Amino acid sequence: MARRRTKKRTHVGARNGPTNGATSNASSSKTPKSMVIRIGAGEVGPSVSQLVRDVRSMMEPGTASRLKERKSNKLKDYITMAGPLGVSHLLLFSKSTSGNTNLRLALTPRGPTLHFQVEKYSLCKDVKKAIRHPKGGGKEYLSAPLLVMNNFASPPPADGAKPSIPKHLESLTTTVFQSLFPPISPQATPLASIRRVLLLNREPTSETENGPYTLNLRHYAITTKRTGISRGIRRLNAAEKMLRSNERGKKKALPNLSKMEDVADYLLDPSAAGGGFTSGSESEIETDAEVEVLESNARKVMNKKQLEHARNDAGRASNRKSGTGIEKRAVKLVELGPRMKLRMTKVEEGVCTGKVMWHEFLTKSRGEVKEMDKIWEQRRIEKEARRKEQRENIERKRKERGQGKPEINRGDVEEEDMDMEDDEWDSEGLEGDAEMEVNREAEAEGNFDEQQEEIATG
Protein backbone atom coordinates (compact mmCIF):
# COMPACT_ATOMS: atom_id res chain seq x y z
CA MET A 1 0.00 0.00 0.00
CA ALA A 2 1.34 3.40 -0.95
CA ARG A 3 2.38 5.70 1.84
CA ARG A 4 0.27 8.79 2.25
CA ARG A 5 2.09 12.02 1.50
CA THR A 6 2.51 14.49 4.34
CA LYS A 7 2.36 18.17 3.56
CA LYS A 8 5.62 19.85 4.51
CA ARG A 9 4.86 23.46 3.69
CA THR A 10 1.43 24.49 4.94
CA HIS A 11 0.31 22.05 7.63
CA VAL A 12 0.47 22.87 11.33
CA GLY A 13 3.93 22.26 12.74
CA ALA A 14 5.78 22.45 9.42
CA ARG A 15 8.77 24.68 8.85
CA ASN A 16 6.60 27.29 7.12
CA GLY A 17 3.40 26.33 8.92
CA PRO A 18 1.16 28.50 11.09
CA THR A 19 2.87 27.75 14.40
CA ASN A 20 6.37 28.49 13.21
CA GLY A 21 5.15 31.30 10.99
CA ALA A 22 4.21 33.34 14.04
CA THR A 23 7.74 33.10 15.43
CA SER A 24 9.26 33.97 12.06
CA ASN A 25 6.98 36.98 11.75
CA ALA A 26 7.89 38.06 15.26
CA SER A 27 11.59 37.85 14.45
CA SER A 28 11.18 39.62 11.11
CA SER A 29 9.17 42.40 12.74
CA LYS A 30 12.23 43.32 14.82
CA THR A 31 14.28 43.87 11.67
CA PRO A 32 14.03 47.49 10.48
CA LYS A 33 12.42 47.95 7.06
CA SER A 34 12.40 51.15 5.07
CA MET A 35 10.81 52.75 2.04
CA VAL A 36 12.66 55.38 0.00
CA ILE A 37 10.01 57.48 -1.74
CA ARG A 38 9.84 60.40 -4.16
CA ILE A 39 7.12 62.82 -3.16
CA GLY A 40 5.78 64.35 -6.37
CA ALA A 41 7.30 61.78 -8.72
CA GLY A 42 7.01 64.02 -11.78
CA GLU A 43 8.45 67.12 -10.13
CA VAL A 44 11.76 65.99 -8.65
CA GLY A 45 13.67 65.53 -11.91
CA PRO A 46 15.99 62.77 -13.20
CA SER A 47 18.92 63.54 -10.87
CA VAL A 48 16.87 63.21 -7.69
CA SER A 49 15.18 60.10 -9.11
CA GLN A 50 18.60 58.51 -9.62
CA LEU A 51 19.60 59.59 -6.11
CA VAL A 52 16.52 57.79 -4.76
CA ARG A 53 17.55 54.61 -6.58
CA ASP A 54 21.09 54.89 -5.19
CA VAL A 55 19.79 55.36 -1.65
CA ARG A 56 17.60 52.28 -2.08
CA SER A 57 20.62 50.20 -3.04
CA MET A 58 22.47 51.63 -0.03
CA MET A 59 19.63 50.60 2.30
CA GLU A 60 19.57 47.02 0.99
CA PRO A 61 18.43 44.38 1.88
CA GLY A 62 15.76 45.79 4.24
CA THR A 63 14.12 48.20 1.81
CA ALA A 64 11.61 48.21 -1.04
CA SER A 65 14.13 48.38 -3.90
CA ARG A 66 11.53 48.08 -6.70
CA LEU A 67 8.98 50.54 -5.37
CA LYS A 68 7.20 52.58 -8.06
CA GLU A 69 5.53 55.88 -7.30
CA ARG A 70 2.82 57.74 -9.16
CA LYS A 71 1.94 61.39 -9.32
CA SER A 72 -1.38 60.70 -7.63
CA ASN A 73 0.17 58.94 -4.62
CA LYS A 74 -0.17 60.96 -1.45
CA LEU A 75 1.87 60.77 1.71
CA LYS A 76 -1.07 59.22 3.54
CA ASP A 77 -1.04 56.26 1.12
CA TYR A 78 2.48 55.27 2.13
CA ILE A 79 1.81 55.79 5.84
CA THR A 80 -1.32 53.64 5.62
CA MET A 81 0.56 50.78 3.94
CA ALA A 82 3.57 51.02 6.26
CA GLY A 83 1.76 49.15 9.05
CA PRO A 84 0.63 46.04 7.10
CA LEU A 85 4.00 45.78 5.34
CA GLY A 86 6.01 46.15 8.55
CA VAL A 87 7.81 49.29 7.38
CA SER A 88 9.48 51.13 10.25
CA HIS A 89 11.19 54.04 8.43
CA LEU A 90 10.20 56.36 5.60
CA LEU A 91 12.82 58.32 3.65
CA LEU A 92 10.94 60.98 1.66
CA PHE A 93 12.76 62.92 -1.06
CA SER A 94 11.12 66.02 -2.51
CA LYS A 95 12.05 69.13 -4.42
CA SER A 96 10.79 72.60 -3.57
CA THR A 97 9.68 75.25 -6.02
CA SER A 98 12.93 77.13 -5.37
CA GLY A 99 14.97 74.09 -6.47
CA ASN A 100 16.10 72.80 -3.07
CA THR A 101 16.21 69.03 -2.53
CA ASN A 102 14.75 67.96 0.82
CA LEU A 103 14.87 64.70 2.78
CA ARG A 104 12.50 63.69 5.57
CA LEU A 105 13.37 60.73 7.76
CA ALA A 106 10.26 59.55 9.62
CA LEU A 107 9.62 56.69 12.03
CA THR A 108 6.26 54.98 11.70
CA PRO A 109 3.65 54.96 13.05
CA ARG A 110 4.09 57.78 15.60
CA GLY A 111 7.21 59.68 14.57
CA PRO A 112 9.36 61.66 15.06
CA THR A 113 10.38 63.17 11.70
CA LEU A 114 13.76 64.70 10.93
CA HIS A 115 13.81 67.30 8.13
CA PHE A 116 17.03 67.76 6.15
CA GLN A 117 18.05 69.95 3.26
CA VAL A 118 20.32 68.10 0.81
CA GLU A 119 22.92 70.79 0.17
CA LYS A 120 25.19 68.64 -2.02
CA TYR A 121 25.03 65.11 -3.38
CA SER A 122 26.93 62.85 -5.77
CA LEU A 123 25.44 59.84 -7.51
CA CYS A 124 26.98 56.37 -7.54
CA LYS A 125 27.96 56.64 -11.20
CA ASP A 126 29.85 59.87 -10.51
CA VAL A 127 31.71 58.31 -7.58
CA LYS A 128 32.70 55.27 -9.67
CA LYS A 129 34.06 57.49 -12.45
CA ALA A 130 36.30 59.29 -9.96
CA ILE A 131 37.78 56.04 -8.55
CA ARG A 132 40.56 54.19 -10.34
CA HIS A 133 39.38 50.71 -9.35
CA PRO A 134 35.65 50.88 -8.53
CA LYS A 135 33.88 48.02 -6.83
CA GLY A 136 30.27 46.91 -6.88
CA GLY A 137 27.80 44.43 -8.21
CA GLY A 138 28.91 41.58 -5.95
CA LYS A 139 27.60 40.15 -2.71
CA GLU A 140 28.00 43.41 -0.79
CA TYR A 141 24.28 44.14 -0.80
CA LEU A 142 23.14 40.81 0.65
CA SER A 143 23.65 42.06 4.21
CA ALA A 144 23.04 45.39 5.93
CA PRO A 145 25.95 47.84 6.19
CA LEU A 146 27.86 48.61 9.35
CA LEU A 147 26.74 52.02 10.64
CA VAL A 148 29.54 54.28 11.91
CA MET A 149 28.58 57.63 13.45
CA ASN A 150 31.12 60.25 14.40
CA ASN A 151 30.84 63.50 16.39
CA PHE A 152 27.09 63.22 16.97
CA ALA A 153 27.40 64.43 20.57
CA SER A 154 28.88 67.92 20.46
CA PRO A 155 30.77 69.42 23.42
CA PRO A 156 29.19 72.39 25.21
CA PRO A 157 30.19 75.87 23.99
CA ALA A 158 33.27 77.32 25.63
CA ASP A 159 31.70 80.67 26.48
CA GLY A 160 28.75 79.03 28.25
CA ALA A 161 26.23 80.03 25.57
CA LYS A 162 23.14 78.01 24.80
CA PRO A 163 23.86 75.26 22.23
CA SER A 164 22.13 75.47 18.85
CA ILE A 165 20.60 72.00 19.28
CA PRO A 166 19.51 70.70 22.71
CA LYS A 167 21.19 67.59 24.05
CA HIS A 168 17.99 65.53 24.06
CA LEU A 169 17.51 66.22 20.35
CA GLU A 170 21.09 65.12 19.65
CA SER A 171 20.43 61.82 21.41
CA LEU A 172 17.11 61.54 19.52
CA THR A 173 18.90 61.98 16.19
CA THR A 174 21.45 59.34 17.18
CA THR A 175 18.69 56.89 18.11
CA VAL A 176 16.80 57.47 14.85
CA PHE A 177 19.85 56.73 12.70
CA GLN A 178 20.83 53.74 14.82
CA SER A 179 17.39 52.21 14.28
CA LEU A 180 17.78 52.27 10.48
CA PHE A 181 19.68 48.97 10.48
CA PRO A 182 19.51 45.82 12.61
CA PRO A 183 21.79 45.82 15.66
CA ILE A 184 25.04 43.86 15.47
CA SER A 185 26.08 41.43 18.18
CA PRO A 186 29.87 40.94 18.29
CA GLN A 187 29.44 37.41 19.65
CA ALA A 188 26.85 36.22 17.12
CA THR A 189 27.44 38.23 13.93
CA PRO A 190 29.89 36.50 11.55
CA LEU A 191 32.75 38.73 10.44
CA ALA A 192 32.35 37.76 6.77
CA SER A 193 28.79 39.13 6.70
CA ILE A 194 29.97 42.73 7.23
CA ARG A 195 30.81 43.86 3.71
CA ARG A 196 29.81 47.55 3.70
CA VAL A 197 30.20 50.62 5.90
CA LEU A 198 27.83 53.58 6.10
CA LEU A 199 29.63 56.57 7.61
CA LEU A 200 27.74 59.52 9.10
CA ASN A 201 30.06 62.32 10.16
CA ARG A 202 28.76 65.48 11.77
CA GLU A 203 30.71 68.58 10.86
CA PRO A 204 32.25 70.16 13.96
CA THR A 205 31.05 73.62 14.89
CA SER A 206 33.33 76.47 15.85
CA GLU A 207 33.92 77.20 19.52
CA THR A 208 32.84 80.84 19.23
CA GLU A 209 29.47 80.40 17.47
CA ASN A 210 26.91 77.63 17.06
CA GLY A 211 26.84 76.42 13.48
CA PRO A 212 24.20 74.38 11.68
CA TYR A 213 23.64 70.67 12.26
CA THR A 214 25.31 69.24 9.14
CA LEU A 215 25.92 65.56 8.38
CA ASN A 216 28.17 64.08 5.70
CA LEU A 217 27.10 60.65 4.42
CA ARG A 218 29.53 58.23 2.78
CA HIS A 219 29.05 54.63 1.67
CA TYR A 220 31.99 52.21 1.38
CA ALA A 221 32.68 48.58 0.52
CA ILE A 222 35.12 46.59 2.66
CA THR A 223 37.89 44.78 0.77
CA THR A 224 40.62 42.59 2.30
CA LYS A 225 43.91 41.16 1.02
CA ARG A 226 46.52 38.90 2.54
CA THR A 227 49.73 40.61 3.65
CA GLY A 228 53.27 39.39 4.23
CA ILE A 229 53.71 37.71 0.83
CA SER A 230 55.51 38.96 -2.26
CA ARG A 231 53.92 40.21 -5.45
CA GLY A 232 55.02 37.13 -7.37
CA ILE A 233 53.27 34.74 -4.99
CA ARG A 234 50.13 36.85 -5.16
CA ARG A 235 50.20 36.68 -8.96
CA LEU A 236 50.63 32.91 -8.83
CA ASN A 237 47.66 32.60 -6.48
CA ALA A 238 45.55 34.74 -8.80
CA ALA A 239 46.59 32.64 -11.79
CA GLU A 240 45.63 29.44 -9.96
CA LYS A 241 42.20 30.85 -9.16
CA MET A 242 41.66 31.82 -12.81
CA LEU A 243 42.62 28.35 -14.01
CA ARG A 244 40.19 26.78 -11.55
CA SER A 245 37.36 29.07 -12.62
CA ASN A 246 38.09 28.47 -16.36
CA GLU A 247 37.98 32.19 -17.10
CA ARG A 248 38.95 33.25 -20.61
CA GLY A 249 40.41 36.47 -21.89
CA LYS A 250 42.69 37.04 -18.88
CA LYS A 251 45.87 35.32 -20.04
CA LYS A 252 47.80 38.60 -19.82
CA ALA A 253 47.56 38.43 -16.03
CA LEU A 254 49.46 35.12 -15.96
CA PRO A 255 53.20 35.41 -15.19
CA ASN A 256 55.57 34.58 -18.06
CA LEU A 257 57.95 31.83 -16.92
CA SER A 258 59.13 30.66 -20.36
CA LYS A 259 62.62 32.22 -20.07
CA MET A 260 63.30 30.84 -16.60
CA GLU A 261 64.74 27.50 -15.61
CA ASP A 262 63.11 27.30 -12.20
CA VAL A 263 60.24 28.90 -10.32
CA ALA A 264 62.74 30.03 -7.68
CA ASP A 265 64.23 32.43 -10.24
CA TYR A 266 60.86 34.13 -10.52
CA LEU A 267 60.25 34.29 -6.77
CA LEU A 268 63.76 35.31 -5.62
CA ASP A 269 65.22 37.32 -8.50
CA PRO A 270 64.43 41.03 -7.97
CA SER A 271 64.50 41.76 -11.71
CA ALA A 272 62.22 38.86 -12.74
CA ALA A 273 59.02 40.67 -13.76
CA GLY A 274 58.83 42.46 -10.46
CA GLY A 275 58.35 39.19 -8.64
CA GLY A 276 61.20 39.30 -6.17
CA PHE A 277 61.72 41.32 -3.01
CA THR A 278 63.34 44.58 -4.07
CA SER A 279 62.94 46.29 -0.70
CA GLY A 280 61.39 45.86 2.70
CA SER A 281 58.17 47.48 1.52
CA GLU A 282 57.71 45.18 -1.48
CA SER A 283 55.18 42.96 0.29
CA GLU A 284 53.25 45.91 1.75
CA ILE A 285 49.88 46.90 0.29
CA GLU A 286 48.26 50.31 0.24
CA THR A 287 45.82 49.83 3.06
CA ASP A 288 43.78 51.55 5.73
CA ALA A 289 44.49 49.04 8.52
CA GLU A 290 45.69 45.52 9.22
CA VAL A 291 43.78 42.95 11.24
CA GLU A 292 44.33 39.35 12.27
CA VAL A 293 41.58 36.90 11.34
CA LEU A 294 41.15 33.16 11.35
CA GLU A 295 41.88 31.39 8.10
CA SER A 296 38.71 30.54 6.18
CA ASN A 297 39.60 27.23 4.54
CA ALA A 298 37.03 25.37 2.47
CA ARG A 299 36.01 22.02 3.96
CA LYS A 300 35.65 18.86 1.89
CA VAL A 301 32.93 16.32 2.45
CA MET A 302 34.76 13.19 3.70
CA ASN A 303 33.70 9.77 4.80
CA LYS A 304 34.47 8.32 8.22
CA LYS A 305 37.84 6.83 7.27
CA GLN A 306 39.08 10.02 5.60
CA LEU A 307 37.87 12.05 8.59
CA GLU A 308 39.95 9.90 11.00
CA HIS A 309 43.07 10.31 8.82
CA ALA A 310 42.52 14.08 8.68
CA ARG A 311 42.22 14.29 12.46
CA ASN A 312 45.42 12.31 12.94
CA ASP A 313 47.28 14.51 10.47
CA ALA A 314 45.97 17.63 12.17
CA GLY A 315 47.12 16.31 15.55
CA ARG A 316 50.63 15.64 14.26
CA ALA A 317 50.76 19.04 12.60
CA SER A 318 49.69 20.78 15.81
CA ASN A 319 52.52 19.07 17.66
CA ARG A 320 55.05 20.29 15.09
CA LYS A 321 53.95 23.93 15.04
CA SER A 322 52.31 26.22 17.56
CA GLY A 323 50.34 28.34 15.00
CA THR A 324 46.62 28.82 15.55
CA GLY A 325 45.55 29.39 11.92
CA ILE A 326 45.60 33.18 12.16
CA GLU A 327 46.52 35.25 9.12
CA LYS A 328 47.05 38.96 8.63
CA ARG A 329 44.80 40.79 6.20
CA ALA A 330 44.92 44.34 4.94
CA VAL A 331 41.59 46.17 5.09
CA LYS A 332 40.76 48.84 2.54
CA LEU A 333 37.57 50.84 1.96
CA VAL A 334 36.35 51.46 -1.58
CA GLU A 335 33.65 54.09 -1.93
CA LEU A 336 30.41 52.96 -3.54
CA GLY A 337 28.27 56.09 -3.32
CA PRO A 338 26.11 58.02 -3.02
CA ARG A 339 27.46 61.03 -1.16
CA MET A 340 25.19 63.50 0.59
CA LYS A 341 25.62 66.60 2.68
CA LEU A 342 22.55 66.95 4.90
CA ARG A 343 21.62 70.03 6.89
CA MET A 344 18.97 69.54 9.55
CA THR A 345 16.29 72.21 9.47
CA LYS A 346 13.45 70.94 11.65
CA VAL A 347 12.31 68.11 13.97
CA GLU A 348 8.61 67.25 14.23
CA GLU A 349 6.89 65.14 16.83
CA GLY A 350 4.68 63.02 14.54
CA VAL A 351 5.01 61.50 11.08
CA CYS A 352 5.49 64.64 8.95
CA THR A 353 3.05 66.49 11.21
CA GLY A 354 2.57 67.48 14.82
CA LYS A 355 4.34 69.81 17.19
CA VAL A 356 7.66 71.28 16.04
CA MET A 357 10.28 70.18 18.56
CA TRP A 358 13.13 72.20 17.05
CA HIS A 359 13.57 74.61 14.15
CA GLU A 360 16.80 76.02 12.77
CA PHE A 361 15.47 79.44 11.81
CA LEU A 362 12.64 79.97 14.32
CA THR A 363 13.25 80.30 18.04
CA LYS A 364 10.52 80.74 20.65
CA SER A 365 10.53 81.82 24.24
CA ARG A 366 9.28 79.64 27.07
CA GLY A 367 5.98 81.49 27.15
CA GLU A 368 5.42 80.90 23.44
CA VAL A 369 6.32 77.24 23.84
CA LYS A 370 3.77 76.84 26.64
CA GLU A 371 1.14 78.58 24.53
CA MET A 372 1.83 76.23 21.61
CA ASP A 373 1.59 73.24 23.96
CA LYS A 374 -1.85 74.40 25.04
CA ILE A 375 -2.96 74.77 21.42
CA TRP A 376 -1.75 71.28 20.52
CA GLU A 377 -3.41 69.80 23.61
CA GLN A 378 -6.69 71.49 22.66
CA ARG A 379 -6.39 70.08 19.13
CA ARG A 380 -5.79 66.61 20.52
CA ILE A 381 -8.84 66.82 22.79
CA GLU A 382 -11.05 68.02 19.91
CA LYS A 383 -9.75 65.24 17.69
CA GLU A 384 -10.51 62.59 20.30
CA ALA A 385 -14.00 64.03 20.76
CA ARG A 386 -14.65 63.87 17.01
CA ARG A 387 -13.44 60.28 16.86
CA LYS A 388 -15.64 59.29 19.79
CA GLU A 389 -18.68 60.90 18.18
CA GLN A 390 -17.97 59.16 14.87
CA ARG A 391 -17.65 55.78 16.59
CA GLU A 392 -20.98 56.30 18.34
CA ASN A 393 -22.66 57.26 15.05
CA ILE A 394 -21.23 54.19 13.31
CA GLU A 395 -22.39 51.84 16.05
CA ARG A 396 -25.85 53.43 16.08
CA LYS A 397 -26.26 53.07 12.31
CA ARG A 398 -25.05 49.47 12.39
CA LYS A 399 -27.60 48.61 15.07
CA GLU A 400 -30.38 50.30 13.11
CA ARG A 401 -29.33 48.49 9.97
CA GLY A 402 -29.33 45.20 11.86
CA GLN A 403 -32.92 45.79 12.99
CA GLY A 404 -34.01 46.01 9.35
CA LYS A 405 -34.86 49.72 9.04
CA PRO A 406 -34.82 50.58 5.31
CA GLU A 407 -34.03 54.27 5.72
CA ILE A 408 -30.42 53.59 6.74
CA ASN A 409 -28.12 53.70 3.73
CA ARG A 410 -25.08 51.46 3.81
CA GLY A 411 -23.03 54.02 1.92
CA ASP A 412 -23.48 56.49 4.74
CA VAL A 413 -21.87 54.06 7.19
CA GLU A 414 -18.94 53.46 4.86
CA GLU A 415 -18.48 57.20 4.42
CA GLU A 416 -18.44 57.56 8.20
CA ASP A 417 -15.72 54.89 8.37
CA MET A 418 -13.65 56.74 5.80
CA ASP A 419 -14.17 60.11 7.47
CA MET A 420 -13.20 58.64 10.81
CA GLU A 421 -9.76 57.61 9.50
CA ASP A 422 -9.26 60.75 7.43
CA ASP A 423 -6.67 62.82 9.23
CA GLU A 424 -4.77 65.83 8.01
CA TRP A 425 -1.27 64.76 7.01
CA ASP A 426 -0.17 68.07 5.59
CA SER A 427 2.49 69.75 7.69
CA GLU A 428 2.95 73.45 8.04
CA GLY A 429 6.61 72.98 7.26
CA LEU A 430 6.05 71.36 3.85
CA GLU A 431 5.37 74.57 1.97
CA GLY A 432 7.26 74.57 -1.30
CA ASP A 433 7.40 70.77 -1.67
CA ALA A 434 4.83 70.98 -4.53
CA GLU A 435 3.07 67.96 -3.04
CA MET A 436 -0.39 69.50 -2.75
CA GLU A 437 -0.08 71.17 -6.15
CA VAL A 438 0.70 67.84 -7.82
CA ASN A 439 -2.29 66.21 -6.14
CA ARG A 440 -4.63 69.00 -7.24
CA GLU A 441 -3.33 68.81 -10.81
CA ALA A 442 -3.82 65.03 -10.85
CA GLU A 443 -7.42 65.43 -9.70
CA ALA A 444 -8.10 68.19 -12.23
CA GLU A 445 -6.61 66.23 -15.13
CA GLY A 446 -8.51 63.09 -14.21
CA ASN A 447 -5.45 60.90 -13.63
CA PHE A 448 -7.23 58.98 -10.87
CA ASP A 449 -9.86 57.74 -13.35
CA GLU A 450 -7.16 56.69 -15.81
CA GLN A 451 -5.36 54.70 -13.12
CA GLN A 452 -8.56 52.93 -12.14
CA GLU A 453 -9.04 51.93 -15.80
CA GLU A 454 -5.46 50.65 -15.95
CA ILE A 455 -5.95 48.54 -12.82
CA ALA A 456 -9.25 47.16 -14.15
CA THR A 457 -7.74 46.19 -17.51
CA GLY A 458 -4.72 44.60 -15.83
Structure, described:
With 458 residues, this protein is an alpha+beta fold. The chain is 36% helix and 18% strand. It has 12 helices and 11 strands. The protein has helices at residues 18-30, 46-58, 75-85, 124-130, 167-178, 231-245, 263-268, 304-320, 366-402, 410-421, 435-445, 447-457, and strands spanning 34-38, 89-95, 101-107, 113-122, 146-150, 196-202, 214-226, 289-294, 326-335, 339-348, 356-359. Strands 1, 2, 3, 4, 5, 6, 7, 8, 9, 10 and 11 form an 11-stranded mixed beta sheet that branches. Helix 9 (366-402) packs antiparallel against helix 10. Residues 15-27, 275-284, 319-323, 418-435 and 454-458 have low confidence and may be disordered.
Oligomerization state:
single chain
What's the story with the biggest beta sheet?
Answer: 11 strands, mixed
SS class: alpha+beta
Mean pLDDT: 75
Uncertain stretches: 15-27, 275-284, 319-323, 418-435, 454-458
- Helix coverage percent: 25-40%
Taken in chain order, the helices and strands follow as: HEHHEEEHEHEEHHEHEEEHHHH
Beta-strand level of the residues, as a percent range?
15-25%
Extended strand count: 11
User: What is the CA–CA distance across the termini?
Assistant: 48 Å
Count of helix runs: 12
The Rg value, from CA coordinates, equals 30 Å
Shape: extended
